[in-house]
Fold this protein.
Amino acid sequence: MDLGDAVPLSTSFPLPFRVLFLIGLGILGWATNLHGLHLLGIDAGSALEFHPGRAFLPTSSSSSRVSSSPRVSYMSVYRLFAGYATWCFAGWSFFRLATHSNTVLVDTFKYIPALSSLGVLTTLICPFELCQKRERDLFLQSAARCLFSSMDSPVYFSDVVFADVFTSFAKVLGDVWLSLCMLLPGGSLLSPPSLNGLSQWILPTLMSLPYIIRFRQCLIEHWSPTNTSKRPLLNALKYASSFPVIFLSAAQRIVVLELAEVKGELVTRESWHGEHPLFRLWLLAAVVNSLYSFWWDLTNDWGLNLLKPRSADSRSNPRPLVLPSLHSKASSIAGSSDAHIVTQSHTSSSHQVLGSAIYRHQSYPYGLRPVLLYPLLVYPLVMFFNLVLRMTWSIKLSSHLHSQSEGSALMLWLEVAEVLRRWMWVFIRVEWEVVKNAQHKSQITSIRTAPEEVELMPSNRSDPMDDD
């Protein structure tokens, strides 16, 4: 077997340690998500339905007001990451010292990554008060709700974010299975196991699990008695479009066997088989899934208008610009820290306040939306990276590709890039949820109370909103 590029990475950083590394990167990403939202003053705690000082734990609508500053949450996650990283780095260091990058010794000392992985799993389910037990328990509770909740249970936004993040770890989930096969007797850390018969379908089934969870959540939302929209059904269609990519990829074994009979064994080393209809079908499924997911991210998950049809009504009606009640630092983010609101007997020609939302008739940057809590440059950059990484993610969903190059550094970097994409996605997704919640509250307030006409009066500038 030609290991080529696979041997160096498999020797110095075998697949089980790569799985642990990516999981740790996810933990760090979530901590920095909470920390970053807190620093920006965005009320992530309300959107994610936090209890004070807790991570993934939804509350009912009748519960007391949740904390708008999840400081304790992100500090606890940071501490969890610190303990996790210390354990995993120690295991990897012992492995490197024992093997000295010697290929012959890699499998001899494969019990070291096995013990490292077992230690992580044992700590996760440990019932004792150590290593941030509260955060571990809340993680398990969120996973249990996603997996086992009844069809009439509510779908909390925190569980939606949890499951969406989980989809970015679909390949990692498949790597867990491959790592187990490598660590068991008869397996080797130097190359992925050969999957034949029914075992070849275990990998795509495990990779499909996160998408099945989100698909199920969408159906629960669609069948809810209070739902009157087709949006959950269209969202379910997005996750369903991942299944053909995953399972048609697993079926590429049929393509290779058929072409090998005609072209010989050299075809097994190739990744492109455009002459075969099953391969073209897989490619079409990958393109459709990537483009549909990209459109959904922009239009629905982020509320951006770039790919939305602009109707005459949307151009003529006043649109929300800034929601002061969104977060504690809304004024600084909006660039209006010196502004204050005073009641006037007339309505300003450019600004109007209904409830807690400020509206104006002025246009906003093309393709974005009226309410923007981050600097303008953030949005085009995030859209660009999201498009590029959405296309590459279809490659990572394709087991027939990554099983051929499991030891390549390129595949590891693609997985890191997907974690980074999801990290960026969380910021915009939570921002849009906060904006929607504030708009909904302002609409309720405007209905219950008479609209109060006010004017935004800056202390230093004629119009602090004109620099949006």
Summary: Residues 1-6, 51-69, 312-362, 452-468 have pLDDT under 50 and may be disordered. The CA atoms of residues 290 and 390 lie 5 Å apart.
